[in-house]
Amino acid sequence: MNHSADIPTVSIDELPTEEYVLLDVREPDEWAAGHAPDAIHIPLGDLPSRAGELPELADDRPVHVICRTGGRSARAAAWLNAAGIVDAVNVAGGMKTWQAAGRPMVGEHGDAAPEVL
């Protein structure tokens, strides 16, 4: 079943321009290849054990959750909302759309251009 209708969702274009919290739930290799400059990285599998970090980081703001294309982030947002940890919003299209929209990206591989795996 598709419960995505119950999950608050924004497009890349609808993201706030500043002062927003972006949580990247992709795997470490995906993060290292390329991510948003100010994103917080907590892989989806680590979220249950690390979710306690989010309320302090969010500071009462919604947490925008992003992955590669929007599937994992939708699950993460649904879980965070259901657990009452933070107000989570899924970012539709994920980092693939972020990159296509020309949003800034940084990588962890030195000279290699950031990319979305």
Automatic annotation (TrEMBL):
* Domain Rhodanese as annotated: residue spans: 16-107
Q: Which SMART domains match?
A: RHOD
Question: According to the lineage, what is the superkingdom?
Answer: Bacteria
User: Which Pfam families does this one have?
Assistant: Rhodanese
Q: Which PROSITE patterns match?
A: RHODANESE_3
Under the GO molecular function aspect, what terms does this record hold?
A: transferase activity
Q: Which UniProt keywords apply?
A: Transferase
For this protein, the record's SUPFAM superfamilies field holds: Rhodanese/Cell cycle control phosphatase
Protein name per Swiss-Prot or TrEMBL: Sulfurtransferase
Its taxonomic placement starts with: Bacteria, Bacillati, Actinomycetota, Actinomycetes, Pseudonocardiales
